[in-house]
Design goal:
alpha+beta
């Protein structure tokens, strides 16, 4: 990689982490192309700020492996840069006995994934020592699950990139990619760039960028919006750290939960509703083109047939506040509907899905000549960002060198 021109498409935390790692390894000329006016404008800047400890992921998967390494790297980076890093802890709660088998599976996976200091709790009194207002019959507690500001982390990484001689070009949407005689010509409205290699970390646009280089159209990105309600600050004593449900293993979403953020704010959410635009952070943000593309995808109807009940439930909760409130109140019976003061934020998850309607669960990477494509990098990609950067360089860029 020494002396090579390397382009990175996407200025989210994964793209900037890649640029930083490349510069640290002595790569030649590194340029990040970001279409927005700022870094971390989409998934990175719209998530809940959780540093995941690795409770949910299939042991041996990329998610499990890179989340474990990434958690340590993010903590060390925050310590180095003086950025806030708060280990507020996470409680995954079985509300009733029907959820105990799924809780046991979370415990098993957590142990295999090496989640540090995980504790199984079957004593309700012990449960209330951690979260006095929670309702449940059992839980697992991850004391080292933390909260950070991922946008601030991305900016700090970008400072390292620039200090090492790398370039970050904002307002640089990629509209074309051509492979020419072993090089890659990348076209933006402001001009063209010629690279020896390109790494695409385009998140919500990852399938569109993949199409520009002739990659397989599958997996396709299905955007899911997750909406958060803010908890009334005066009622902040209802939640000490993070309270999560036992997730339904059929879905890649965790369900509505309570998250105390790095700045002490408490969010309730997110839900998971199909977004009507790739960057549809509100219901009124509609892209007929994006919606039509999703409906035309061969996997659309198998997915709808399998999960339509969940879809109706999630959409209803989004549109009708009392339904959303009832989901949250299962975990904190003292919660009042007036405690949910406003929808303060929403994120859109870039969820990859295949032609058969299957939702991809693990991180996924493709290679087309000198172009490396991150095809699926949802949560815990922010937690794993530094580890993802190291993995991609070691397994894809270094492989080309060989």
């Amino acid at each position: 990689m020494t002396g090579e021109r390397i382009g990175i498409i996407g200025g989210g935390i994964v793209g900037v982490a890649l640029a930083r790692e490349l510069m640290a390894r002595g790569a030649g000329e590194v340029t990040v192309l970001e279409k927005e006016a700022r870094l971390a404008a989409h998934q990175t800047g719209h998530n809940s700020g959780v540093v995941h400890a690795g409770l949910y992921y299939k042991p041996g998967s990329l998610k499990a492996t890179l989340c474990a390494a990434g958690r340590v790297s993010i903590r060390e980076f925050c310590e180095e840069k003086g950025l806030p890093y708060r280990e507020v802890g996470k409680l995954v709660v079985a509300v009733d006995e029907s959820e105990l088998p799924a809780l046991a599976e979370i415990e098993r996976r957590s142990i295999e994934n090496g989640v540090p200091d995980l504790v199984r709790i079957d004593d309700v009194d012990r449960l209330h020592e951690i979260e006095p207002h929670v309702a449940g019959v059992a839980a697992v507690h991850s004391p080292h699950t933390a909260a950070v500001d991922y946008a601030a982390i991305t900016e700090a990484m970008a400072q390292d990139v620039r200090a090492a001689g790398g370039h970050i070009a904002l307002h640089s949407e990629v509209t074309g990619i051509r492979l020419e005689n072993g090089t890659v010509r990348v076209i933006t409205p402001s001009g063209e760039h010629v690279f020896d290699r390109v790494i695409a970390c385009a998140g919500l646009q990852s399938d569109i960028v993949a199409k520009l280089v002739g990659a397989d159209s599958s997996p396709k990105i299905l955007p899911f919006r997750g909406e958060y309600w803010e908890l009334e600050p005066a009622r902040g004593d209802l939640v000490r750290g993070m309270i999560y449900p036992v997730p339904d293993p059929r879905f890649p979403f965790l369900g509505v939960h309570f998250t105390r953020g790095v700045y002490d704010e408490i969010h309730v959410g997110p839900n998971a509703v199909p977004a009507l635009a790739r960057e549809g952070y509100k219901w009124l943000r509609v892209s007929p083109k994006d919606t039509l593309e999703s409906l035309r995808w061969p996997g659309a109807w198998p997915l709808a047939k399998q999960h339509w009940r969940m879809g109706v439930d999630e959409i209803s909760g989004s549109l009708v506040k009392p339904l959303y409130y009832q989901k949250a109140r299962r975990f904190i019976p003292e919660l009042r509907m007036s405690d949910l003061t406003a929808k303060t934020a929403a994120g859109v998850r870039a969820q990859a899905w295949g032609r058969g309607g299957e939702l991809l669960d693990d991180f996924a990477v493709d290679q087309v000549g000198p172009v490396t494509l991150l095809r699926n990098a949802p949560s815990p990609a922010a937690t794993s960002s530094i580890a993802i950067a190291q993995y991609v360089i070691d397994h894809y860029l270094s492989r080309i060198d060989a």
